[in-house]
Specification:
Length: 562
C-alpha cells in the first residue's frame, strides 16, 4: 500500500497542478486529493469519537477551497449527529495568537534562552507579560504554510476560574485584529522539497548500468521520510551546534554498502552532507518567509508599532529558525521575540481555548475585525413610493413597487465587534402559503466602493449579488403574531386607488462575522427561519483615516431601511 504524504495544500488547484508537474504522477488528481482528505478526516473523526467515548466518558461530554473543505469535513462524519456541528472559526495564525498570548504561562522569551547571540538571562523567569496596547505579530510556520496575523491587546481582564474547588485568578486578554491573516505555501515541507531536489540531482549522476535495483524516486522519498526528518528537527539545537563540523550521512536505499561515487557525494552506500549544505536548505526557504514577514511589517509600520513577535508551528519550533528570527527582527528592531511553549500544538490549543472562553463568556477572545468590502441586504423602500413613476419598478404579487434599495449591514473599514450583533429589521408583504409555509428570498449584495460612495440601489455602481437566503415560515406561527392594527391599516390617500391593502410582517436579518466568512441568519420572533454564508476577507485598517459615510444616496438608503 502506497502512502500519500503532504496533500494538505492540494485542495488548491494551482498548487496541485504544480505538484503534478513536479512529480509527474497521474495519481495527483483533484478527485483523489478530496478522497485522501475524506479518508484522513474520517479516521480522525473516528479516533476523536472513540477517545471521547472512553477516556473522557467520566466528564459527560456528550472562497471555494474553504467550501470544499467544509463539505469534506461533513462527509467524513463530523456534524453527523444532532448535537454535533462544524464551524470554521479562526485562522491558524489567529488560533496561535490566542494560545500564545492569552496567558503568560503559554509563552517564553527567546531572549531568555542561550542562543549564542547577545546575553541570555535566567530561563526560569517565565514568559513575558503582555499589557494593553501591545501589538503582536504572530508567525505560525508549520508543515505546508506560513501564516501571519497581527493583533492588538485591547484589554486585560482578571477572571476567577475554579478547578477541583480551588479558586484561581486568571488574566484574560482580549484582542482586535488589525491586520488580516495572510499566508504563503512555504513551510517545513518546502525544506523537504529542496532536500529531495538535491538528492535526486545527485542520484541522477550515477550511471544506470553502475547499480542495480535503484529506483531514484523511491530512494528520494525514503531518504526524506526517514533520516532527513531526524536531521531537520535537530538542526540548530544547542548540542548539535556545539559539535565540531562533521558530515551527515544518510543511507541510500537500493545501493550496495560498498558503492561510492565522489561527484554524487556517496561513500559506502551513504550520501554525505555538510552542516553548511543543510543550512542552505533552510536558508533557501527562510529567505522567502522573511521576505513575506518584511512585507507585512512594512505595511503595518505606518499604522502601529509591533512590540512582540510570536513564533509557533512545527517549523517555528526549530531552534535554528528561532535564532534566525531573533537575529533579523529581535533587539535590532526593538521587538521582543516570544515562542509558544508547545509550538506544534499552538493552533489546536488556541482553538480550544477560544471555544471554552466563548462557552463561558459568550464571546471570542478576538473581539474586533475590519472588513475589506461592504455587504448589504435588499429591501423595498416605502419612501420612494411617491416617486414611483420616476423609479425602476419591481413587480411583486402583481403590484408595482418601488425599486429595491440596499441597506449596508457591514461597511468597509468600520470596526466589527463580536459583542455587538449586526442586524436589520425588514418588512415584507404576506404571500400565499405553499404547503403551509410562507417562503421568500433575501438577497445579499457586495460592493468594493469606498464607504462614502456605496451604491444606494441594486442597479447602481458596482453592486454585486453574492448570496440568496431562502427562508421558510410556518403560516400558523405567522398568524399568531400578526398585528391586527397593522393588518387593517388604511393605505395612504394617494395610493388607495391603486392597490388593495396588503398585510405585512416584520423579520430580522443577523450577520455573524467569522474568520473566513460571514454567516447570515433570518429570524422571526427569535426563531431562525433561514440562513446563508459567504466567504469574506478582512483587512488592515489605518485608524487615523477612518471616515464617516458622507455619501448622500447611501445615507438615504440607511435612513429609509430603518
Amino acid at each position: 500500500m502506497d502512502v500519500i504524504e503532504y496533500f494538505k495544500l492540494y485542495l488548491d488547484p494551482a498548487l496541485l497542478g504544480r505538484r503534478i508537474d513536479l512529480e509527474n504522477f497521474p495519481i495527483y488528481q483533484e478527485e483523489n486529493v478530496q478522497m485522501w482528505w475524506e479518508d484522513y478526516l474520517k479516521a480522525l473523526y473516528e479516533h476523536i469519537a472513540e477517545h471521547i467515548n472512553t477516556a473522557l466518558r467520566e466528564y459527560g461530554l456528550g472562497s471555494r477551497v474553504i467550501e470544499v473543505f467544509r463539505k469534506i469535513v461533513k462527509k467524513a462524519g463530523f456534524a453527523e449527529y444532532e448535537n454535533h456541528s462544524v464551524h470554521i472559526k479562526l485562522t491558524e495564525a489567529e488560533a496561535a495568537a490566542v494560545y500564545t498570548a492569552k496567558n503568560s504561562n503559554h509563552q517564553e522569551s527567546v531572549h531568555q534562552r542561550s542562543l549564542d547571540i547577545g546575553s541570555a538571562s535566567n530561563p526560569s523567569s517565565g514568559g513575558s507579560s503582555l499589557k494593553e496596547g501591545d501589538v503582536l505579530l504572530i508567525c505560525d510556520s508549520g508543515g505546508g504554510t506560513t501564516d501571519i496575523s497581527v493583533v492588538k491587546v485591547i484589554s486585560v481582564q482578571r477572571c476567577k476560574e475554579y478547578e477541583d474547588e480551588t479558586e484561581e485568578v486568571v488574566e484574560t486578554m482580549l484582542f482586535e485584529i488589525i491586520f488580516a491573516p495572510q499566508g504563503i505555501p512555504v513551510g517545513s515541507v518546502s525544506i523537504d522539497d529542496s532536500f529531495k531536489e538535491v538528492v535526486e540531482s545527485r542520484l541522477k549522476l550515477i550511471q544506470p548500468e553502475a547499480v542495480e535495483n535503484l529506483n531514484i524516486k523511491a530512494a528520494v522519498r525514503d531518504m526524506n521520510k526517514r533520516d532527513f526528518q531526524s536531521i531537520k528537527t535537530r538542526f540548530g539545537d544547542d548540542l548539535e551546534t556545539k559539535l565540531p563540523e562533521r558530515r551527515l550521512s544518510l543511507r541510500v536505499p537500493g545501493l550496495d554498502g560498498r558503492f561510492s561515487h565522489e561527484r554524487a557525494g556517496i561513500s559506502n552506500g551513504r550520501m554525505n552532507f555538510t552542516r553548511t549544505e543543510i543550512q542552505q536548505l533552510f536558508d533557501k526557504n527562510l529567505k522567502e518567509i522573511f521576505s513575506f514577514i518584511g512585507n507585512q511589517l512594512s505595511r503595518i509600520k505606518s499604522h502601529e508599532r509591533v512590540t512582540h513577535f510570536v513564533i509557533s508551528g512545527g517549523l517555528g519550533s526549530s531552534k535554528y529558525v528561532q535564532r534566525r528570527i531573533v537575529e533579523t527582527y529581535g533587539p535590532s528592531q526593538g521587538i521582543k521575540i516570544l515562542v509558544s511553549r508547545d509550538p506544534q500544538m499552538a493552533v489546536c490549543k488556541g482553538l480550544v481555548i477560544d471555544r471554552v472562553h466563548e462557552l463561558k463568556y459568550r464571546t471570542s477572545l478576538l473581539k474586533v475585525r475590519y472588513c475589506r468590502f461592504s455587504y448589504g441586504v435588499l429591501f423595498d423602500d416605502k419612501k420612494l413610493l411617491s416617486r414611483q413613476a420616476k423609479e425602476p419598478s419591481a413587480i411583486k404579487n402583481n403590484k408595482k413597487r418601488a425599486a429595491q434599495r440596499i441597506h449596508w449591514l457591514i461597511i468597509e473599514g468600520n470596526p466589527i465587534s463580536q459583542e455587538e450583533s449586526i442586524s436589520q429589521k425588514i418588512s415584507r408583504p404576506i404571500t400565499a402559503a405553499e404547503d403551509g409555509y410562507i417562503v421568500w428570498k433575501d438577497v445579499i449584495f457586495m460592493s468594493r466602493a469606498p464607504s462614502g460612495r456605496l451604491p444606494g440601489k441594486s442597479d447602481e455602481g458596482d453592486a454585486l449579488q453574492v448570496c440568496e437566503i431562502d427562508s421558510k415560515l410556518d403560516s400558523n406561527t405567522l398568524a399568531q403574531h400578526l398585528n391586527d392594527a397593522d393588518t387593517n391599516r388604511t393605505p395612504p390617500f394617494w395610493n388607495r386607488k391603486f392597490r388593495k391593502n396588503v398585510p405585512t410582517f416584520e423579520y430580522e436579518i443577523f450577520v455573524f462575522p467569522a474568520a473566513v466568512n460571514l454567516n447570515f441568519e433570518v429570524q422571526f420572533e427569535g426563531t431562525v427561519v433561514g440562513s446563508g454564508s459567504i466567504p469574506v476577507e478582512w483587512q488592515l485598517m489605518d485608524f487615523g483615516e477612518l471616515q464617516q459615510n458622507t455619501d448622500q444616496p447611501a445615507a438615504e438608503a440607511q435612513e429609509s431601511a430603518t
